[in-house]
Amino acid sequence: MSQPTGQDPMIKVSVVVPVYNAGRYLEECAASLLAQSLSSDEYEIIFVDDGSTDDSPAAVDKLAAEYPHVRVHHQANSGWPGKPRNVGVAMARGAYVQFVDQDDQLGPEALERMYAMGSRNGSDIVLGKVGGTMGGPSSMFRENVERCTIADTALIESVSPHKMFRRAFLLDHDIWFPEGKRRLEDQLFMVQAYLEARTVSIVGDYVCYYWNRRDDGKNSSGTASTMRGYYNNLREVLDAIEAGTEPGELRNRLMGRFFRVEMMRRLGEPRLLRYSDGYRNLGYRVVRELAVERFSSGGEGFATGDVVAGLSPMMRLRAMLLERERLDGLMELARRCGQVRATCTVDDVRWEGTRLCLDLRTSLVHADGSPVVVLGNDGRYALDPTLAAGLPTIDAWDVGDPCEHAKAEIRVRHRDTGTWWFAPATLRPSLVPVGSGPQARFQVVVAGTASIDPHTLAGGAPCEPGRYDVVVSLQVLGLGRPARVIIEAGQRWSGVLVPGVVGDPARIVVPQRATPNGALIVDVDERQPSLAPALAARGVGPLDVRDGDLHVALPMHTAKFTGTREVEVVLGREGSSRALPARLQPPHLASLVFDNVTTLPSGRHPLSVRVDSSGRQRPVRIGTVVVEQGRIVDVLSASYRTIPHRAAARVVGSPWLQRQARRAIAVMPASEKTRDLARRLGAAASRKLR
């Protein structure tokens, strides 16, 4: 390794990118690095070519020739990213070093935001929120955290190296990546860094790092390795934990993470059931060898040792089957647990200021819908017999306090970007009696209130416009399952799922019940044309004329101190319509405000609204205006007659639904009733399109 170079006080961050046969992925990665909001004299990009045999060397040399803040180092192939990263750290001149893989990208403001947080806190490590297709949602990035350590925060759940490190911190503590072909080099590096770090910061309100799955399946973290080599490398990670901690709670928690994730995940659903017999048997043997070697304590088995004792009931049960050498029991338990799913039901929806609040409850159920239960007896609780009964060597399984490992999070996913955010929620577990019989049966139910505020949803910052899916992530007894948040069918919800215009700047929020499954969807700022159909289904008006402007009352919630939102009103039919600037104006009931003078002839004309004033979005009808002598004198609600209002509004607001409706009618038996329905649906769609 070359001697580390000195720091340049002008350079804030050095971005280190190991490169090996990157192909077309390098172009996207480099583009994201060159597009950073830091000025080019405040950061540098170091590509370390690890003996590539494709056109990657020429590509990075071309970038270096074109951009002064791009540097390149070529070396013989080392076989793994460790050495290129070390070389990059040695070459770096910045105060901080950010590691990026060749097939990933940074958000445009990633370096600026992470460096700002690190520099104001003197942070040794800065974690940036991770998005992309390789990783799922992580509560690590729920919100910004200015200062924390591995002792007070679950940092060990994030052991990828795609983070920002203070370069002097790495050099002072002699923290380097292991070199050569080996697995878990990232985990070893991160364990050593976390244990030495005095201050760690987390950027949770902005997606800094996009960790992407390559469509050719060649991500460096997904290549093959031998099973025994993998677990030999895991031994080194465990060595580092023991060397850096004293016996006690912290050590047990860190060791428990690797027991859960790197070892026992291989022996649970769905992985255990998908492996070939040979691969499954080998994995079982090497995991058991390591468990016996490193997790047994006091001359007793590992299943009752200090590390495993702090884990969930299901994890302890799996550990006991492993200790008793019952692979057949592990497989049967995996089959049974694979049938368990989560359910989530909303009991109430309401607006509180700028927040859409949900009262909900969630629990685990079996494949037939029956609840996953615990059996109570004199203050002790045993695992559901459907899961435990008949397992080899297991008569019953004591779960301790069933609520101890029970929790739920509300996750909100942006459909276009795939980015996950966490809605604030107060959710608590309780035991709910189930049925009757000689033995008390209880279900663990997690219930409470969650809220969605477009001004703070993104980790405390405003969220992007778009359509959001709402999901609950439930953990009970050591079984983790996601579920869509469901609005049950019923007439009462039509008066509860009310659109809102809230905050300043004003954001439009439209909660909807998806059909046919009832999943809750939340539209923010009308990226989808959902507001106008919602208004049309509820009815608009009455009309008030003040100071020459029309004020049309809208069935929307508004919050105190909400600002005005600019929209566009379209009067008349296509070909002879007039587009007018308008605004959604609080307080109290929202009003649609626009000029009441028009050149339309006297009579009735469609009233449509388009929140996207760019003109790319088709306006959707919400009512009818009555014109007399060049002035609008009345407004009427849209009427869909016998077609249910909400269904009709959805159909006429969606070309896709219009096509599906026409196809459905085409295959129905011919009858006068069918023909009448088709005529009325077509007329409604035509009015909307005009």
What can be said about this structure in brief?
The protein folds into 5 domains: 13-218, Spore Coat Polysaccharide Biosynthesis Protein SpsA, Chain A (Alpha-Beta Complex), CATH 3.90.550.10; 227-322, no CATH class; 341-522; 529-637, Immunoglobulin-like, CATH 2.60.40; 647-689, no CATH class.
Task: Write a structural description.
By secondary structure, the protein is of the alpha+beta class. It folds into five domains: 13-218, Spore Coat Polysaccharide Biosynthesis Protein SpsA, Chain A (Alpha-Beta Complex); 227-322, no CATH class; 341-522; 529-637, Immunoglobulin-like; 647-689, no CATH class. It has 18 helices and 31 strands. Strands 1, 2, 3, 4, 5, 6, 7, 8 and 9 form a nine-stranded mixed sheet that branches. Strands 14, 15, 18, 19, 20, 21, 22 and 25 form an eight-stranded mixed sheet that branches. Strands 23-24-28-27-26-29-30-31 form an eight-stranded antiparallel sheet. Helix 6 (185-196) runs parallel beside helix 7 (227-244), helix 7 packs parallel to helix 10 and helix 15 (531-538) packs antiparallel against helix 16. It is globular. The chain starts with 12 loop residues before the first strand and ends with a helix.
Outline: globular
Percentage of residues in DSSP E strands: 25-35%
**Low-pLDDT residue spans:** 219-224, 640-653, 685-690
Distance between the termini: 71 Å
CA gyration radius, whole angstroms: 30 Å
Question: What is the CATH domain class of the largest domain?
Answer: Alpha Beta
Which secondary structure elements does this structure contain, and how are they paired or packed?
Elements: E1 13-19, H1 25-34, E2 43-50, H2 56-66, E3 70-75, H3 82-91, E4 96-99, E5 105-106, H4 110-121, E6 125-131, E7 145-148, E8 164-166, H5 167-172, H6 185-196, E9 200-210, H7 227-244, H8 249-263, H9 271-274, H10 277-295, H11 306-309, H12 313-323, H13 327-337, E10 341-352, E11 355-365, E12 373-377, E13 380-383, H14 385-388, E14 407-414, E15 420-423, E16 425-433, E17 440-452, E18 466-476, E19 479-484, E20 500-502, E21 507-513, E22 520-524, H15 531-538, E23 543-546, E24 549-553, E25 557-558, E26 565-571, E27 578-585, E28 591-595, E29 603-610, E30 620-628, E31 631-637, H16 645-652, H17 655-666, H18 672-689
Parallel strand pairs: 1-2, 1-4, 2-3, 6-9, 20-25
Antiparallel strand pairs: 4-8, 5-9, 6-8, 7-9, 10-11, 11-17, 12-13, 12-17, 14-15, 14-18, 16-17, 18-19, 18-22, 20-21, 21-22, 23-24, 24-28, 26-27, 26-29, 27-28, 29-30, 30-31
Helix pairs in contact: 6-7, 7-8, 7-10, 15-16
